[in-house]
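Example protein as discussed:

>
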Amino acid sequence: MSAHEFTLFSGGAQGAEAEFGKQAERFGVQEVNFSFEGHKIERNRGLRMLTQEELMRKDVSLTYVSRLLDRNFSNGPLIRMVLRTIMYQVDAGLEVFVVGAILDNGTVNGGTGWGAEFAKICNKPLYVFDQVKNSWFVWEDNAWHSVGTPTITKQHFTGTGTRFLEDNGRSAIEALFAQSFGGVK
């Protein structure tokens, strides 16, 4: 299949999501960015504004998310909306690629961690580029395993991650697209 038959589902936010979008556009991959009214994002290509009704369908207990990730999330409206859009991203993709850092407890740092945990709950193939360890990892058999640069194999895939993208994270996203789709279109 050619790159234009694939679709990236993301959120268009600063950092990893914006870079996933830039690479999707560069390689000719379609792009859908889930957002909501008042959310500041960098990518408008394929913008999909979620309605209040759609956002409410993905409501999740912050107590549950905090326990699952072993950290506290504020009860502010912005974080709730972001967590809901992440659920739309993960739901839409058949495999999930994340850039961040895997913590000692096996979760991924920040709000990005919810996307990774939701992918685990949904039993979707999950890959994380850990910027601290400078390596890709795959979640298999309830554990993280180091792998080389993965290949995007599902036509609908999710790309999300940290707002604090470092050069190695940017390079990892670029290498993921190059590995998956070959030369730039």
Q: What stands out?
A: The CA atoms of residues 42 and 97 lie 19 Å apart. Residues 3-181 form a domain with the Rossmann fold fold (CATH 3.40.50.450).
